[in-house]
Structure formats: C-alpha cells, structure tokens
Design goal:
The structure is a single chain. By secondary structure, the protein is of the alpha/beta class. It is globular. It has one domain (3-149): Nucleotidyltransferase, domain 5 (2-Layer Sandwich). It is 48% helix and 22% strand.
Amino acid sequence: MNIAEFKQCLAPKQAILGIDFGTKRMGLAVSDLSRTIASAYKILYRKNLAQDLAELKQIVQDKEIGAVVMGLPLQMNGKEGNIAEEVRRFATVLEGNLNMPVLLWDERLSSLAMENFLIKEVDLSRKKRAKVLDASAAAYILQGALDALKYA
C-alpha cells in the first residue's frame, strides 16, 4: 500500500499509531486526531504475541486509533533484510487483528537521527536516551508519514 492508498482508507478524526518495531521492545507514537503532529507515546516491552496484541488493542481503543504506520527497516541500498521480513509479518498480523490499515514506511536512519537529536539538542545521557529512543524514533517515522499525507 502506498501513501495515497493509505490516505483513502483513513476515517476522519482518528489518530494514527506509529510503531518502531523491535524484537525486544517497540517504540510507540501517536498522532493527534487531526493527524498533524506525532508525539512519542511509550515503549512496549515485548512479551509474547498474544500479550503484545492485547496491549496494542487497548492503546487503539484508548487513543482513538484508526490506522498504523510501521517503520520498515530497509538497508542503505534500499533492499530488505531479515528484520524487514519480520516487520512485514508483524504488520500482516496487526492488520488482521486490529482490523485497520497498516502502512509500512521507510525508516532508514530514523533511530540515528533521533539519537543525534537527543544528544546534541536535548543533551540526554546515554541511560536517559535508552528510555526514550524507541518511542522518539516511532514519532520521527510517524511524523514523516503524516507530512507525506498532506500531499498524497
């Protein structure tokens, strides 16, 4: 699904959940209901698929989520590796279990960009960065998709 197709699936006045996928934890971000601004929300520490889905379903309900944007970790040459395959599998499971569209969004360098920002602009220590990096990367990914939606 491309950004224009994704836009056609969106219902008005629903937020979008951003996910920076990881095998041990996932960074989560949420847009406002007008889908203008992405904000880091939380880090979901992975347990098992059933518990992860239950927690995501609760977030969808609590935050009025109508769609999901997941970061797709492409290699620098644009090709997909093993992690991208895992993301695609998880996105398929999410789409079926949450019954909403899931857009895969190129996330190359998102974690690096956010880590540099947290070091240079916010001056967070390594320990504090570790607590917010995944959710901040999810917000960075989601904001990129939100910005693209304006022109789709």
